[in-house]
Amino acid sequence: MLTAIIDYESGNLHSAHKAFERMAAEADAGSVVVTSDPEVVSRADRLVLPGDGAFPACRDALVSSSVFEALRDAVENKARPFLGICVGMQLMAKRGFEYHETEGLGWINGEVRAIKPDSQRLKIPHMGWNDLIVAQEHPILKDVNSGDHAYFVHSYQMNMGDKSELYAYVDYGGAVSAVVGRDTMVGMQFHPEKSANIGLQLIANFLRWSP
User: Fold this and answer.
1) How far apart are CA 167 and CA 181, in angstroms?
2) Exactly one of 17, 126, 154, 191 is catalytic; which is it?
3) What CATH number labels 2-208?
4) How far is CA 83 from the centre of its chain?
5) Segments making up each domain of the chain, as ranges
6) Are 85 and 159 in contact (CB under 8 A)?
7) Which entry of 98, 111, 165, 193 is annotated as an active-site residue?
8) Is 86 one of the annotated active-site residues of the chain?
């Protein structure tokens, strides 16, 4: 089995690669590569899309990259398991509103908008550890419980248009989407590769997931 981490020059790939390699070895889940080669993306069994920075810049970088059509075909037509991380998750939405309205991939019924906590004591960006609240059972959340914590760094979140696509959230002066998905797609707003044992568990769950 081959897991491809997409390199479109919009993510910190080193720590993600190391975490996925470690868990692939422990789960006997094949190999992990970082790639910008559309042929590798096309034949990969699983796909991971990281993302750091602003929604519009990441979207433009992805759409203009050589791997975009291969990624879209693999996810939309071949139904390959897909994981979006941080802005990689946000790009799954219908649209984003960071700086200006920008079209997303349209894979999740949601819009990416600024986090607006109900307390002025809560700072933006939402940075650091926060407790997950599991909204519904899903294989990606196997052995993950409400109260387990993950590491976040973001100022925008996905506002859900369909609550059935929300798997977990956190409370930060209101509900903030943490794990979303449908069909063979899942997204995590936090960084699993920086979220200690819970993050490694989530990576292992993705590598073992057979939608």
Assistant:
1) 7
2) 191
3) 3.40.50.880
4) 5
5) 2-208
6) no
7) 193
8) yes
CA atoms within 13 A of residue 29's CA, in its CB half-sphere:
23
Give the torsion sign (CA, 142, 143, 146, 147): negative
Nearest Cα residue to 20 out of 44, 53, 52, 56: 44
Look up tokens 């080669």; give the residue.
Answer: 37
Beta bridge partners of 4: 33, 47
Per-residue pLDDT of the chain (211 residues; tens, 9 = 90+): 999 999 998 777 989 999 999 999 998 999 999 999 999 999 999 999 999 999 999 999 999 999 999 999 999 999 999 999 999 999 999 999 999 999 999 999 999 999 999 998 999 999 999 999 999 999 999 999 999 999 999 999 999 999 999 999 999 999 999 999 999 999 999 999 999 999 999 999 999 999 9
Is residue 192 a contact partner of residue 48, using CB atoms and an 8 Å limit? no
Tell me whether residue 191 is one of the annotated catalytic residues: yes
In this structure, what token pair is assigned to residue 127?
Answer: 């940075």
Catalytic residue among 17, 58, 86, 111: 86
The residues, ordered by sequence, that sit 6+ positions from 195 with a Cβ below 8 Å of its Cβ are 149, 150, 151, 202
**Is 193 noted as a catalytic residue in this protein?**
yes
